[in-house]
Design brief:
Elements: E1 2-5, E2 18-20, H1 23-30, E3 36-38, H2 41-72, E4 76-80, E5 88-93, H3 95-104, E6 114-115, E7 120-122, E8 124-133, E9 136-145, H4 148-155, H5 160-168, H6 189-201
Parallel strand pairs: 4-9
Antiparallel strand pairs: 1-2, 1-3, 5-7, 6-8, 8-9
Length: 205
């Protein structure tokens, strides 16, 4: 299907461009979301009439997005999840989770604005893109940890998996005293053994 774009679409074109797209992409995404119109004679004339207004509106939205970007860029949210010893999550972190975390932080972000190729399934610090506008994208940090304490440690650059391994290792020296061999009346262990041998060789009374 041939459409005229009403805004910049990444990897597709700029506002006003007439492009060829798959029918399903046009019907399910571009047309219902007001991002494009069918490129017929009436719609092309309509676009040219509204072009100045559309460009002004786009510029206003871009400025608003840029203002949000100044606060959002590098912002960190903490997501608590259960995970195995290897750091693999029992569940996952989705765009919805990230959008909710950002909303709780005071940002108005919809899950559709969170660019995530696949759900996050491992502990750690993850950089995630948030598309505020077709021409403005912020990068946020998603700190996924088992506890708030682990999240704080990760933020400091510590390896929480290594920390857990250290906690799991038991120091055998804690269960044994050094130089545990008995000493009798100041004798060394070798002297004590020799005395015992002498006693054994003495004839019984």
């Amino acid at each position: 299907m041939e459409v005229v774009l009403l805004e910049r679409i990444e990897k597709l074109g700029q506002m006003g461009d007439v492009v060829q797209v798959k029918d399903g992409y046009a019907r399910n995404f571009l047309l219902p979301r007001g991002k494009a119109l069918r490129a017929n004679k009436d719609n092309l004339s309509r676009f040219e009439e509204d072009r100045a207004q559309l460009e002004a509106r786009n510029l206003e939205l871009k400025k608003e997005a840029a203002a949000v970007d100044e606060k959002l860029e590098g912002y960190t949210i903490i997501v608590i999840r259960q995970a195995g010893e290897s750091g693999q999550l029992y569940g996952s972190v989705s765009p919805r989770d990230i959008a909710e975390g950002l909303t709780e932080g005071g940002f108005s972000v919809a899950r559709g604005q969170v660019v995530l190729a696949a759900p996050i399934k491992i502990l750690g610090l993850h950089e995630v893109s948030v598309k505020l506008h077709p021409e403005v994208t912020s990068t946020v940090i998603v700190n996924v940890a088992r506890t708030t304490e682990e999240a704080e440690a990760q933020a400091r650059g510590e390896d929480i998996n290594a920390m857990n391994d250290d906690d799991d290792e038991l120091d055998a020296s804690e269960f044994f005293e050094e130089d545990a061999a008995p000493e009798l009346d100041g004798e060394t262990s070798e002297e004590a053994e020799a005395s015992a041998d002498d006693e054994a060789e003495k004839p019984a009374d």
